Amino acid sequence: MAIEFSARIRRIPSYPVADGYSLPADVAMLASNESPDPPLRQVVEAASRAIAGANRYPDPSNSMLKRALGNRYEVPTSRIAIGNGSCDILLAAGEALLEPGAELVYAWPSFSVYPHLAAASGARAITVGLDDDHCHDLDAMAAEITVATRLVIVCNPNNPTSTAVPFADIAAFAENVPRHVALIVDEAYCEFNLLDDPNDTLDLLARHPNLVLLRTFSKIYGLAGLRVGFALCGSEDFPRAVEQVRQPFYCNAAAQGAAIEALKHQDAVAERVERAIVARVEVEAGLNALGIEPAPSQANFCWFDLPEDSDEAQVVKGLAERGVLVRAGAALGRPGALRVTYGTPAQNVRFLDALGEVV
Ligand SMILES: *Cc1c(COP(=O)(O)O)cnc(C)c1O
Question: The domain spanning residue 187 has which CATH number?
């Protein structure tokens, strides 16, 4: 007889795992919005020092990392949550906030982890379609908030569409969310956003105790493999709640050490952003030359509809055969679209050449 699992297990979707983890090293991995640059030498050394003491459990309160983040963002450490990646904080938020009868509101297509929150908790997911420009329709989202709403998530810039809404719209939206409803603004890509200063939203924390700014070391800091993310919060309630629902040692010692060191190298962060912006301009020009109009990207990746006569699965396969891995839109809520991470200049050329051959 097979093991009998809980009913909720059948509702939880499987995360669309990118192909290619056993492919040769010269494949262009443009499917997961990772940084093309390896971590800095000093960051690797900091992680190594932590590993040398790995017979001990890591600091369960993440005190040094919280202090470093608190100094950088001028947020009290009691209003900072750390996670085993920011997805860990997202799932913990679902567990802490949601239950059958409750509702959460988010846009669609958006980050593929959000549907897990409702499925795992038995809450109802209210999804609001993006507008014709692949952007969040914040008015339509505000209209979906009811007495049952516990959580609203805005992904800005949005994954998978790469678009961002201006800070002023986020600020106005925050005013519209009742104080007892948690508002998570998922800012995994905020450093790549040129519409506004990525840290403008920090000013909103003082006015909105229900606001949570979710950030990660996986993208601009290039530490996706270590799993560390954080949330900057308007009150102490959110960090306390996500602490309660998790195991004590959710953030490992190497991740804590690497993250603390990575924060010291903001000059390297700025250089990575610059390279991503150059890639953005070059890839957009290359796509335009193929008659493709990508969504206006404020992230480290692009999003576009394939020409009418091309078959998404065939294009993805054709690119993979040419050593370029991208993400198919079908798995992300928009069949016929592709999401492609900007890589090194050589990888971007390779992607554009390969796409030119297959469409
Ligand atoms: C990549 C990403 C994250 C980060 O996930 P980690 O668990 O921190 O690696 C969070 N939100 C969105 C929208 C993302 O695309």
Answer: 3.40.640.10
